[in-house]
Amino acid sequence: MRARITQDVKDAMKSGEKARLTTLRLITAAIKDRELGVGGQPPVEVGDAEVVAILQKMVKQRRESIATYENAGRTDLADQEKAEIVILEGYLPKQMDEAGVKAAVAALVSELGAAGPKDMGRVMGALKERYSGQMDFGRASGVLKELLK
User: Fold this and answer.
1) Residue 52 CA: distances (Å) to CA of 18, 102, 146
2) Any alpha helices (H) in 38-136, and if so which ranges?
3) What distance in Å separates the CA atoms of residue 135 and residue 89, rounded to the nearest whole number?
4) pLDDT 10s per residue in the chain (149 long)?
5) How far is CA 27 from CA 23, 54, 66, 87, 148, in A?
6) Which of 25, 57, 84, 139 is deepest in the core (most CB within 10 A)?
7) Within 13 Å of residue 120, how many CA atoms lie on the same side as its CB?
8) Which CATH architecture has domain 2-89?
């Protein structure tokens, strides 16, 4: 995945896509920060799974920024953040739709024999292990709460 990002940086430079280039450079910087342990985290070897986690965090940050900018009436900045999200999501695995999330959660609940709210942590842990990068776990948590009432 990192090779693809590096190649896309070069392609964006050659084609003069400034917005795309800026976003790709932000991705590269975030990956390097994670490798070096910036921000109090220990340095790690960054593989594809870690890159996906970094990209998901970046998307989440931008969604929060969009809400802030829209509340402040800064639609120009909100539009810029939305454009960055489109670029970031191009590197993420395809996300499950609502029906897929419900099916996966229901299957795991029955497989693990989860019966009530006390089993939520165990089910969420298994979901994250199996569907990392493919599922919005906030949505999955809501579905799980409904099932375990």
Assistant:
1) 23, 22, 28
2) 48-71, 75-89, 98-112, 120-131
3) 13
4) 899 999 999 999 999 999 999 999 999 999 999 999 887 888 888 888 889 889 989 999 999 999 999 999 999 999 999 999 999 999 988 888 889 999 999 999 999 988 888 889 999 999 988 888 788 888 899 999 988 87
5) 6, 8, 18, 10, 38
6) 84
7) 15
8) Orthogonal Bundle (1.10)
